[in-house]
Amino acid sequence: MKFSSFFILFILVCSCKKDKVDFYSNANCSDTVSFNDEILPLIENNCAGCHDNQNGYSLTNHATISSNSSAIIGAMRKSGYKLMPIDGNGNGYALPDSIIQRMECWVNQGKKNN
Ligand code: HEC
Question: 53-63 pLDDT, tens per residue?
């Protein structure tokens, strides 16, 4: 391959990656995730008690959960963020992987408000 075509390929790959920053390839998504039945209760039960306009985040509705989805998953996976949620002793702990994957699938599926 000529250097120039390699360069164009490089640019193309980079520009595609930019659009897919929020894609989680380890998420096993065989069905459509429901925001109202799964994601909102998940965040309400595990996060919103401390993040209803406190501690830097307000994770209470579709708009704020969508716009903070990278930080939410980053915290659930301890990837670039402190591990969340926090237990009664003040220690972060990981939710079950199957639950985190539902959140990742919801992002992969376009953060539907369904
Ligand atoms: C018991 C209270 C509590 C719960 C439950 C909780 N958080 Fe937090 N969260 C905090 C506090 C306090 C901080 C600020 C920590 C700090 O800066 O030291 C924080 C910080 C964060 C941050 C920023 C971390 C960073 O490194 O910048 C994110 C993102 C976050 N929480 C997401 C979540 C998510 C998602 C959940 C649910 C899975 C959750 N939190 C559950 C108390 C909580």
Answer: 999 999 999 99
Cα pseudo-dihedral 33, 50, 64, 100, rounded to 10: -30
For ligand 1, atom 20, name the residue with the nearest CA.
55
| Burial status of residue 58 (CB atoms within 10 A of its CB: 0-12, 13-18, 19 or more) | middle
pLDDT in tens, 17-70: 444 457 999 898 999 999 999 999 999 999 999 999 999 999 999 999 999 999
- C-alpha 84 to ligand 1 mean position (Å): 5
CB of 51 within 6 A of ligand 1: the answer is yes
